Each structure stands twice: as structure tokens, then as C-alpha cells.
Amino acid sequence: FAASAAADNELSFSVLLLYLIPFFICLQPFNWHQPGMSHSKRKLLQSLMGPYGPLSVSYNGKTCILFKAKRLAIRYRNHTFIDLTERVFNPNSPVDTKGSICTKEKATLSLRFGDVEDLRGLVIRLQMSNTFYEAAGQNWFTLDSVHIHYNWTQEATFNASEVYAPATSSYHCQHVSSLHKYDTLLVPSSHTDTSANWHITFTDFQIQAFNVQSDKFASASDCATFLTPAILMGLVTSLILLLVLAYALHMVVHLKHIDRYEEHKATVYFPRSPEAELPDKNSLEATKELP
């Protein structure tokens, strides 16, 4: 009975606290806040807002480019990376894409940011083309180059390598970057100009520049190749193991064949000739001389 009474008291106290908490909150000063509360709210707000949807670019009243990235960052020399993701995809303050152009064979995605930190008039442009290849029997779109315009007159250009997909598909890659650790799909056009001083990285990159239907990405052609270094080393190792195993099996079969040959050789019967069966003349004469 004492135990049940204690449990009832504890339950009543818990219910009382639930009723009193709003009252204490109302009595607190207007500017009172717990340490770290605003930071946690900001993180929660960011998590609710992101990830952002794709950026849609229209030309002559028709959607012609879809672009999406989990992160877009640039860096000049040894400075810290500048994250431009929210400036591009935030629907409340969309980036200026008025400089974008779309035709049947060419497309330009222009992202005009304006002044960003120490950079004046920052603009990033992606140049793409749509080409028919007779060998493939279809059109393919390619990302030809990426341009960074800054301080009104300066420009850094990166040539894109192996960034392509069928024109009826979108292109996706986990990293499209000028950094070596990400396979360097963006290569500075020249080491003599300012391009070598810049780095740009698109994370979880997806783009479609032609044949956009219903404002949605088509099925993605991924950049992940089959013969990556890890897979290639695995194939070479497997081939070596198969060769060793085949040689071992060959030796085992060969040894068994030798053993069978030796056993067969030991049990072979050679019949004696009639001459060998006749008694020796000397032995006959010796037997005759015996009394």
C-alpha cells in the first residue's frame, strides 16, 4: 500500500509540473533565452529548409535547364572556401539567371551573385553543348567549360572532361571539382592565367540542359565508372588467384597421373617366351651324370 501511495504522489507531482511549466515561461523576461537556444533553432530551421530543390531556368517561356547541387563552393588561392549553395538554391532569394541562354545546340547557365565578400560582380557560367554522334546514333550533351567572372574584368576558366550524358538523360556525379582528390573533372584552361589560383567544387551535382520534360530531371547518367582503381585492383588480384588455382589444379592432376602410371607399371605381366621355358642343356647333362 505504501508503494502504491508513493507512486500516486510521484504521478501527481509530474502532472503538476506539466501544468506549471507554461506559467513559469510566461513569468520570464521577454529577452530571456537559454544558452545555445538560438543556435539550435537556427540549425533546426536550416534542416527544415534544406536540401533545396533544383534550380529551374526558363528561356523563351520554356524550361530548358535544371541544376541541382548539395553544395557549391569556390576558393581563391589559400583562402577559405566560400559556400554559395544557399545563394543559388534558396527560393526566398533566388540567384540571378537572366544571362542564361538555351538553343538546340548550345546552353549557358549563368549564376550572377553580385558582390560576395571581397569579390565584386561574381558570376559563374556553365557552358554546355548538344551534339549528335553517328557512332552512338543519338545526341549527347556535354559540359564544355566552367567560367568564374569576378572583379568585373577577371576570369578563371575550367575545361570539363568526361562530363557528358545522353541528351535524353540528366548527368549526375558526387563531385565535379577542380581538386585532385575528386578526380579533377574541371581542369584549369591555362596555368599561366588566374585559373590555377582558383578551386571550385560541386557536391552531389546534377544537371540537364536539353529535353527537359515537366520540369523534372530525366533518369540520371552517373559519372561512376566501372573500372575504378579499386575495382581494377580487385580484378587483377582475382585474375592472379585464378591463375595460381589453375596451376595448382594442373599440378595435382599431373601428379595423380604419374602415380597411376607407376602403379600400372608395377602390375604389368610380361609372358615368358617358349625358349625361356625349355630347360638348359647344361642342367640336363648334369642331371644325367648323377647316379
UniProtKB/TrEMBL annotation:
Domain of life (superkingdom): Eukaryota
Keyword Transmembrane applies: yes
InterPro entries per the UniProt record, alphabetical: Ac45_acc_su, VAS1/VOA1_TM, VAS1_LD
Residues that span the membrane, as ranges: 12-32, 226-249
Gene Ontology CC terms, in alphabetical order: bounding membrane of organelle; cytoplasmic vesicle membrane; endomembrane system; proton-transporting V-type ATPase complex
GO term, biological process aspect, one: regulation of cellular pH
Location within or outside the cell: Membrane
Cross-referenced Gene3D superfamilies: 2.40.160.110
One Pfam family of this chain: Ac45-VOA1_TM
Keywords: Membrane, Transmembrane, Transmembrane helix
GO molecular function: ATPase activator activity
Transmembrane helix is among the record's keywords: yes
Ranges where the V-type proton ATPase subunit S1/VOA1 transmembrane domain occurs: 225-262
Membrane disposition: Single-pass membrane protein
PANTHER family: ATPASE, H+ TRANSPORTING, LYSOSOMAL ACCESSORY PROTEIN 1-LIKE, VACUOLAR ATP SYNTHASE SUBUNIT S1
Annotated protein name in UniProt: ATPase H+ transporting accessory protein 1 like b
Source organism: Seriola lalandi dorsalis
